[in-house]
């Protein structure tokens, strides 16, 4: 039975052993078809071979459906149920019935389509807290994924470069149609230089066990909010090169998808939350090349649609426009920027973190909190309270040294960095000032303040934050704080956090 006939047959309610909705909806891609029956969804794979994806035989389709079930049950057990045979008996196609096996299908619990992140976004119902929650979910997912010597091998620079170079080769024919030759050359030159000059970054990622069995296709269409929790689904099962990747490969897909939809504030929240909960700020050293890669792949997919003679003029125009936008985004990620450092300073409860998070979204900055750095060094979960040893003088020194080190390496990659800590000692402020001067980097110190009784009230009422600071520490902090000297004052902007601080921030030239 050919695929078009099979798809037609599976729209017949008699093919199912349970009651189905009046009209079975079919969602098709280039490689699969999904049948929405009401309570359950069924997915078949089309008998196609695209090189990077091969479902051309019955055995391969069965294998990859089982692979998809196993991989996705681990992260979305509410959705993925079982693989069943599709049988033919007396000219009737049945799922899980008797007769000749003609294909296989993946059975899933069907969730409402408005639960998808992409549909929540389109409906204007995707909120900032959803992106924070997603960052936490993805960080936990990556923490539990596997790695080994075989998987780490996919982090070799030759493997990564080969895959990216193939994208350029496949899209060269679309120059003048969906992108300019100048844009094509500059995008390719960026990745060529990246792999030539920054090989040590990729080695470090392997050594740090950041090459793992990831998702591979982590965009808004593959995330849903169902049963009161965020669920990732539809991991890449058909190609090892697409799922045995750097965790930043996954992160880049989500960031790029949000950027492409002109919600850089959303992508910033997701990225900063992920980095805070994983402590993987060094992953930013390879993020730009993966961001460009993900946008370029979306451009390539849309370009390939242009080769289909069966699509309408309207569909052709839409695909061409989307390809152009993604090519431009891929190029945009390659453009180097001059990073800046913003140093938050002030007592606990002074509003540093509130302002830092707000500012990060405004300037697309990387926010690094000393509270998170400290707990990562101490190897305790961010949501747990640390003991006295975590706040010893030795740990304070390690925390500030690490915080400043991370800020320096990240700002050198062109990111704007917001370092969020009390920064109440000359020693640490002067260290950052020297780094900024040596590297000709813009530096602003944002000193946040409010009356002591307000700080005390804020700390007493604080909930759901990773900081362990309490109101009884305020007097000691105030006694130990060292006033800004004349040299430091030239960098300082003072913010009264009790009085319209958003307007004050707007007055500062970033």
Word description of this protein:
This protein is an alpha/beta fold. It folds into three domains: 3-110, 2-Layer Sandwich (Phosphorylase Kinase, domain 1); 117-332, Aminoglycoside 3'-phosphotransferase, Chain: A, domain 2, CATH 3.90.1200; 340-507, Rossmann fold. The protein is 48% helix and 16% strand. The strands form four sheets. It has a six-stranded antiparallel beta sheet with strand order 1-2-3-6-4-5. Strand 1 (25-28) and strand 2 form a beta hairpin. It is elongated, with a radius of gyration of 26 Å. The model has no long low-confidence stretch (mean pLDDT 95).
Characteristics of this structure?
510 residues, alpha/beta, Phosphorylase Kinase, domain 1, Aminoglycoside 3'-phosphotransferase, Chain: A, domain 2, Rossmann fold, 3 domains, 21 helices, elongated, Gluconokinase, Kinase-like_dom_sf, P-loop_NTPase, Cell-binding_unc_protein
């Amino acid at each position: 039975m050919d695929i078009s006939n099979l798809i037609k047959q599976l729209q017949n309610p008699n093919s199912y052993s349970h009651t189905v909705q009046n009209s079975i909806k079919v969602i098709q891609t280039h490689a699969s078809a999904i049948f929405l029956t009401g309570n359950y969804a069924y997915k078949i794979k089309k008998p196609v071979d695209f090189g990077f994806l091969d479902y051309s035989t019955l055995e391969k389709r069965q294998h990859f459906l089982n692979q998809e079930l196993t991989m996705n049950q681990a992260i979305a057990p509410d959705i993925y149920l079982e693989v069943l045979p599709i049988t033919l008996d007396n000219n009737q196609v049945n799922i899980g019935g008797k007769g000749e096996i003609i294909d296989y299908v993946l059975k899933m619990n069907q969730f409402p389509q408005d639960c998808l992140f992409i549909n929540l976004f389109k409906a204007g119902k995707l909120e900032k807290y959803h992106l924070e929650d997603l960052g936490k979910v993805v960080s936990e997912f990556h923490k539990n994924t596997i790695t080994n010597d075989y998987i780490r091998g996919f982090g070799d620079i030759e493997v990564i470069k080969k895959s990216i170079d193939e994208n350029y080769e496949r899209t060269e024919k679309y120059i003048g149609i969906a992108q300019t030759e100048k844009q094509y050359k500059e995008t390719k030159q960026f990745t060529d230089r990246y792999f030539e000059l920054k090989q040590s970054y990729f080695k470090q990622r392997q050594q740090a066990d950041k090459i793992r069995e990831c998702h591979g296709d982590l965009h808004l269409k593959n995330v849903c909010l169902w049963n009161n929790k965020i669920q990732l689904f539809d991991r890449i099962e058909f190609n090892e090169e697409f799922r045995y990747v750097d965790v930043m490969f996954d992160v880049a897909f989500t960031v790029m998808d949000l950027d492409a939809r002109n919600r850089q504030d959303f992508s910033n929240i997701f990225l900063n939350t992920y980095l805070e909960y994983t402590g993987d700020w060094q992953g930013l050293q390879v993020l730009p090349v993966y961001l460009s890669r993900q946008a370029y792949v979306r451009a390539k997919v849309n370009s390939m649609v242009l080769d289909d003679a069966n699509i309408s003029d309207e569909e052709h125009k839409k695909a061409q426009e989307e390809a152009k936008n993604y090519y431009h985004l891929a190029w945009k990620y390659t453009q180097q920027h001059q990073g800046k450092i913003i140093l938050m300073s002030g007592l606990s409860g002074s509003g540093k973190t509130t302002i830092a998070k707000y500012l990060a979204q405004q300037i697309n900055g990387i926010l690094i909190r000393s509270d998170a750095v400290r707990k990562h060094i101490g190897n305790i979960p961010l949501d747990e309270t640390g003991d006295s040893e975590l706040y010893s003088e030795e740990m304070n020194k390690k925390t500030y040294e690490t915080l400043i080190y991370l800020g320096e390496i990240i700002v050198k990659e062109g990111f704007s960095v917001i370092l969020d800590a009390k920064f109440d000692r000359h020693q640490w402020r002067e260290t950052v000032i020297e780094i900024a001067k040596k590297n000709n980097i813009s530096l602003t110190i944002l000193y946040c303040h409010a009356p002591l009784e307000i700080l005390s009230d804020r700390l007493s009422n604080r909930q759901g934050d990773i900081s362990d600071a309490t109101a009884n520490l305020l007097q000691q902090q105030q006694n130990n704080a060292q006033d800004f000297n004349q040299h430091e004052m030239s960098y300082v902007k003072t913010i009264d956090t009790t009085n319209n601080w958003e307007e004050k921030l707007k007055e500062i030239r970033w």
